[in-house]
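Morning. Coffee machine broken again, so started the prediction first thing and wrote up yesterday's gels while waiting. Chain of 472 residues, entered below exactly as on the submission form.
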Amino acid sequence: MAPRGFRAAAPRRFVALLAALLLLAACTGGGGGGGDGGGGPQTSPSATADEPGDIVVASGRDVTGKNGVRQRLIDAWNVRQEREGTGYRARLVELPGSADEQRSQLLGALQSGSAGYDVVNLDVTWVPEFAAAGLVRPLPERLVDGDVIPSVASTARWDGRVYAVPFNSDVGLLYYRPDYLRQAGVQHTDLSSGLDWERLRTLIVDLDDRDPGAYDQGWTTQLAAYEGRTVNAVEAFASAVPDLVLTDADGRYRATAGQLARGIAELRRRTDASYTLPDAVRSDEAASVGDFADGRTAFLRHWPSVYRTLYQSFTRRQLGVAPLPGRAVLGGQNLAVTGASRRAGKAAELIEYLTGRESERCLLDAGFAATRVSAYTDDTVRCPVTAGAPSASPTGESADRMPRDAAGRPEYARPILLPALRRAVHRPRTPLYGAFTQTLTARLGPLFGAGPPSDEELARALDEELREALPD
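Came back before lunch.
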């Protein structure tokens, strides 16, 4: 059990750590549809004559901290270029603001040509929009080879072509407090093999009867009016309707009001007030992990990146991680070459390095979800960049308290994270994803208010609006 003073101390300890989480793109979508971006598909990198100079990589903030693993991978590539005398050097530019704000900045910069970006780090939900608008170039198929986790590899393509290469992935997981469960008299507190929602509700009832520590309510997640609500909804919909197809391969809306009603009913059950921390309806990633760290709840739905963050304060006896009950949404970020790049060929080479086997092992060791199977299963693949030097946290701390297996990976990576990524479901893939997520987020709002409408009433309204937002 956490000390009684933990609730007061946790916010001070976590404030800098949580700030980085606000910028996680793994669980954010876009807003709005694609423009013409200069029109039409761009030529492949090999068709462009490169000019020596800086290759500018635009990305959101690296949650592994100052001089984090992304910067160190770029530094290692630069050392190779200097040694070979190529005349190229990569430079990382971190974009400020939330992921939605970053998307708007990238769209504006690429459509206007006002920023000299060669490589952009895109949320997986943005790839169809940027590809359809001609803002990023097709890439060689070999960059997404058979080592990339199949569910993750599919995020790289649009309209039959590769437009981006998976860099780091993401998937919903369930974090929990085994010490709270022990205090509630639960005999089997290792949930790593998985559980369903009925088992989770039973455990919450046990906790409510004993009320351990600073505990308030069973579980929390991200239900504020932003992409977190969309993620939770898609997970509930996919769990309730296993064969649900919200959009087809061309991004056209294909669900029915009846299917939506079943999904809404499942979301309503999951977020029932008797099981869910009241603050969840106003929570984003940072707020929800803060409530969990503060001891207010025993279960948290979140992304792999907080595994390392939480172990800065919790011990093995206080923290566990399990697959999310039901279906979990796939997130992550992919690297793409911009249509306007004057160094497109070399930029593609940089992407190949940053997403290669050794680089993906570096990302996994630092706390990201790697995109390649070999990072999880091949002990001969090692990280040459971070070996013996764990990446710093957003607060500048260098201590690495994250449990690791015999090969040095995060302990949960192979038995829990890799299977979760393989089973993960996609959010709709469409150039109009922004319109989809804005419609879903807004229309589901009444579900979390006073006197919510029936499942069928809400589903009919949502079905009608989605048909308008995603026309055939």
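The radius of gyration is 22 Å. Going to sketch it on the whiteboard this afternoon.
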